[in-house]
Write a structure and sequence with these properties.
The protein is α/β, with parallel strands linked by helices. It is built from ten helices and 15 strands.
Length: 311
């Protein structure tokens, strides 16, 4: 198995409130509350750990409320290389309705100093060469702009490590300019970052342009419509099985982890994509992150419908 470093610059405590339906402006009775240490890179790390990979996790973490994160790191066996920052890691509130609709209320994140940015950059430069892959995922906290973010990605590329990128907005625009090994935007994120229409034909054309610019793998998630994967050798679309949606939180992160596992193991394209789509399907049927039922996952994988896309 591989050694993987995940970089989560803006982690969060996810507070998922489960309720039958959300009635705006009224008193709502919850059916349960789940709290998870989260953030896109950490979500990916949990699914990769379930596959047996060795994880090192880094980024910025608040000194005021690290307990849930440190418990996760210990339980999962993650090597903790987070830079501690004054204050509390943000909380994201997820209002999950019984029919699968989720309303997100995301906190703003920590305020990071110049010295803390330098500390993290030095840590990543020290850690990255000992890993087979670096996953950089999630939004940017206060004090971290897209220029610094692009410099981080360029430094990683100079070290010769493969970088998988999953972010949005200005960070995605800057990140695409550095031509990482793999990118995984959703259709809206890619369309916004490149100023194109979100229709499948335009997205496919943009994916091929990104490949021409040096990005080997472009993975475009499309929610219930599946995922399209454009690699340097072939292109495929996967339609996932129909499942009862509990929460869509973390589905894209689970998909990315499945893709990375297949690529790290050298699996054929069809197996890699079917496995990743199945993991995402399982993820939307639960609250939390990780593979909870391997037998169910195998059934989902067998139900994924694959079709080649023209190159």
């Amino acid at each position: 198995m591989a050694r993987v470093l995940t970089v989560t610059l803006n982690p969060a405590l996810d507070l998922t409130v489960r309720l039958a339906s959300l009635r705006l402006g009224e008193v709502n009775r919850s059916e349960g509350l789940d709290v998870h240490a989260a953030g896109k890179g950490l979500n990916v790390a949990q699914v990769l750990a379930d596959h047996g990979h060795q994880l090192t996790v880094t980024g910025f973490l608040g000194e005021g409320n690290p307990q849930a994160f440190e418990h996760l790191f210990a339980a999962r066996g993650f090597a903790d290389e987070f830079v501690r920052v004054a204050g509390e890691t943000r909380s994201n509130i997820k209002l999950a309705e019984a029919e699968g609709q989720v309303t997100d209320i995301n906190g703003p994140g920590l305020a990071v100093s110049d010295a803390q940015r330098d500390d993290l950059l030095a840590r990543i430069e020290r850690l990255a060469p000992a890993h087979d892959l670096v996953v950089v995922a999630g939004s940017l906290p206060g004090g971290v702009d897209s220029a610094w973010f692009a410099e981080l990605l360029r430094r990683l590329k100079q070290l010769g490590v493969r970088v998988a990128l999953d972010t949005s907005g200005a960070a995605l625009r800057a990140g695409l300019e550095t031509a990482p090994w793999l990118v995984k935007p959703n259709e809206e994120e890619l369309a916004e970052a490149r100023g194109i229409s979100p229709d499948p034909e335009a997205l496919a054309g943009e994916a091929r342009r990104l490949q021409a610019e040096g990005i080997e793998h472009v993975v475009v998630s499309q929610g219930a419509q599946g995922v399209s994967w454009f690699s340097s050798r072939e292109a495929w679309h996967a339609n996932p099985p129909k499942v009862r949606v509990v929460s869509t939180v973390g589905a894209g992160d689970s998909l990315l982890a499945g893709m990375l596992h297949g690529l790290l193991e050298g699996w054929p394209a069809e197996r890699t994509l079917a496995h990743a789509a199945a993991i995402a399907a399982q993820a939307v049927g639960q609250v939390g992150f990780g593979i909870t039922d391997w037998a169910q996952l195998a059934e989902f994988e067998a139900s994924v419908r694959l079709q080649p896309l023209s190159q």
